[in-house]
Amino acid sequence: IPIGFWSQIWHGAEERYSTVEKQLLATYSALQAVEPITQTAEVVVKTTLPIQGWVKDLTHIPKTGVAQSQTVARWVAYLSQRSRLSSSPLKEELQKILGPVT
């Protein structure tokens, strides 16, 4: 059962974050928002970007953004503890519309 759907408005330096950083921050923020509901339960997160690979191996996160590496590491640690990441069933259709994600 979906708990919700999130979008994010970027402020200040966040506007210059890479696509990877924005996806990680949006996922991190959504998980924090539902924590009162889910408490310690694992949450399944469906994304259109391959963040499960980035979370598993922090060294593969592209270094194109402006977020501090410690901040990204904090997001990744939280996502690893609180969620199970998988691809959205709409991934291919969204990528046709949005273009390839690199």
Question: Would you give an account of this structure?
Answer:
By secondary structure, this protein is mostly helical. The protein has one domain (12-98). It is built from four helices and two strands; from the N terminus they run H-E-H-H-E-H. The chain has helices at 19-38, 51-56, 69-82, 91-98, and strands spanning 43-47, 83-87. The protein has a two-stranded parallel sheet with strand order 1-2. Helix 1 packs across helix 3 (69-82). It is globular and about 30 Å long. The mean pLDDT is 72. Keywords: Endonuclease, Hydrolase, Nuclease, Nucleotidyltransferase, RNA-directed DNA polymerase, Transferase. InterPro entries: DNA/RNA_pol_sf, RT_RNaseH. It holds the Pfam family RT_RNaseH.
